[in-house]
Design goal:
Structural class: alpha/beta
CATH superfamily: D-tyrosyl-tRNA(Tyr) deacylase
Strand content: 35-45%
Largest sheet: 6 strands, mixed
Helix content: 10-25%
Radius of gyration: 15 Å
CATH class: Alpha Beta
CATH architecture: 3-Layer(bba) Sandwich
Number of helices: 3
CATH topology: D-tyrosyl-trna(Tyr) Deacylase, Chain: A
Number of strands: 8
Length: 150
């Protein structure tokens, strides 16, 4: 699994012109799922995400986690994170998991993040045409691949 983590002061997702979810201070996550992913990836990533110290303390040092600040999460599925751009100019998405594999893993990630965070999170809709808005705070953007834990 690949996750793009963006520290935000606010974020929202619209589907068909209607707001599906919105958050204030927290993290907007773009999640890419591949066939090789499983519950171990979900468990590791969800713990990593909610405990990552990327929010400022009183001295302005990134020393607080999402849990420390009681922040929120907006999770968006994004198969294009697994794009291969090695050949030609049209990306290939062959590594991205098909919906029958990806949807249950996406739903499991939602449950895992909610469990780790101790509250509901905002989500997009798997496979929908979504319009995501955010104010990237910092900016702080971090990419984490569960296959590169070391």
């Amino acid at each position: 699994m690949i996750v793009v983590i963006q520290r935000v002061s606010e974020s929202s997702v619209k589907i068909d012109g209607k707001i599906k979810a919105e958050i204030g201070v927290g993290l907007m996550l773009l999640l890419g799922i591949e066939d090789a992913d499983g519950q171990e990836d979900i468990d590791w990533l969800s713990k990593k995400i909610v405990n990552m110290r990327i929010f400022p303390d009183e001295a302005g040092v990134m020393n607080r986690s999402l849990l420390d600040i009681n922040g929120e999460i907006l999770l968006i599925s994004q198969f294009t994170l697994h794009a291969s751009t090695k050949k030609g100019n049209r990306p290939s998405y062959i590594k991205a998991a098909k919906p029958d594999v990806a949807i249950p893993l996406y739903e499991s990630m939602i449950q895992s993040l909610e469990r780790e965070l101790g509250k509901k999170i905002g989500t997009g809709e798997f496979g929908a045409d979504m319009k995501v808005a955010l104010v990237n705070d910092g900016p702080v953007t971090i990419v984490v691949d569960s296959k590169n834990k070391a």
